[in-house]
Amino acid sequence: MLEYNTQIKKLVLPEYGRNIQRMVDYCVTIEDKEERTRCAYAIIATMGNLFPHLRDINDFKHKLWDHLAIMSDFKLDIDYPYEVVKPDNLHTKPQPIPYKLSPIKYRHYGKIMEEMLNKCCTFPEGSKEREQFVSLLANNMKKTLYNTTKEIVEDDKILKDIKEYIGDVVGELSVEDLKLRSIKDLQPKKNNNNKNNRQNKK
Q1: 169 and 116: one domain?
Q2: pTM reported for the whole predicted model
Q3: Of the candidates 29, 55, 89, which is a domain's last residue?
Q4: CA 74, 78, 82, 86: dihedral to nearest 10 degrees?
Q5: Of 39, 141, 148, 161, which one is least surrounded by beta carbons within 10 A?
Q6: What pLDDT digit, counting tens, does each position of 50-106 carry?
Q7: pLDDT at residue 194 tops 60
Q8: Are residues 12 and 56 in the same domain?
Q9: Distance (Å, whole) CA 84 – CA 82
Q10: Taking every pair of C-alpha atoms in the chain, what is the biggest distance, in angstroms?
């Protein structure tokens, strides 16, 4: 009688196929522990042959033994060469990563830009380093604002935003001090090599 997949028990790990699952099911039924262990090692070798490109990856063998235990529904009674995964740990959720939420003045600039602007305080007042750092950040702010709004960005707007962040630090900062570049210069240059290659092939 023809047996359909819909009538067969669902595979726990489909990537190994039904034949491997049948081998595991048979291995569980072997009464002699020594013979059962030899069968388990043979199954692991067969499972490894299915993925030869993974053999050099660290813990690959360990993962195979974990998979064997899972496919046997943890009923395979042998001395495993590794400490395999426990049923209770199989479906545990990872611990949430703590994320410190803090208000952001302008979301389009982001928190990192705020932190970098505050770093200006670490440079000596009136120093060339502070001037260059503020100019670099200002140009990044201009590019970010344009990429967000797709509208013309006035240099006065960038100066106003910087003073909202760190007005006490920059003092009497002017637009000229920012050395802002044009939007065209701030955008990445298009690579014409592909276009030239296509033209040469014609």
Answers
A1: yes
A2: 0.48
A3: 89
A4: 20
A5: 148
A6: 988 887 787 899 999 999 999 999 999 999 999 998 888 777 677 787 777 778 888
A7: no
A8: yes
A9: 6
A10: 90
Separation of first and last alpha carbons in the chain: 62
DSSP symbols for 36-68: HHHHHHHHHHHHHHH-GGGTTSTTHHHHHHHHH
The answer to whether the beta carbons of residues 180 and 159 sit under 8 Å apart is: no
Burial of 170 (0-12, 13-18, 19+ CB in 10 A): buried
Range of the domain at 67: 8-89
Query: Of the candidates 27, 26, 24, 21, which has an alpha carbon nearest to the alpha carbon of residue 9?
Result: 21
- The count of other CB atoms within 10 Å of the CB of residue 134 is 22
Residue with tokens 């529904």: 73
Average pLDDT over residues 110-137: 88
Report the number of distinct structural domains present in the chain.
Answer: 2
Torsion of CA 151, 157, 159, 163, to 10 degrees: -130
59 within 8 A of 84, measured Cβ to Cβ: no
Contacts of 15 (CB under 8 A, 6+ apart): 50
The whole-angstrom separation of Cα 54 and Cα 62 is 12
- Give CA separation, 167 vs 11, 154, 198, in Å: 64, 19, 51
- Of the candidates 141, 140, 147, the one whose C-alpha atom is nearest the C-alpha of residue 105 is 141
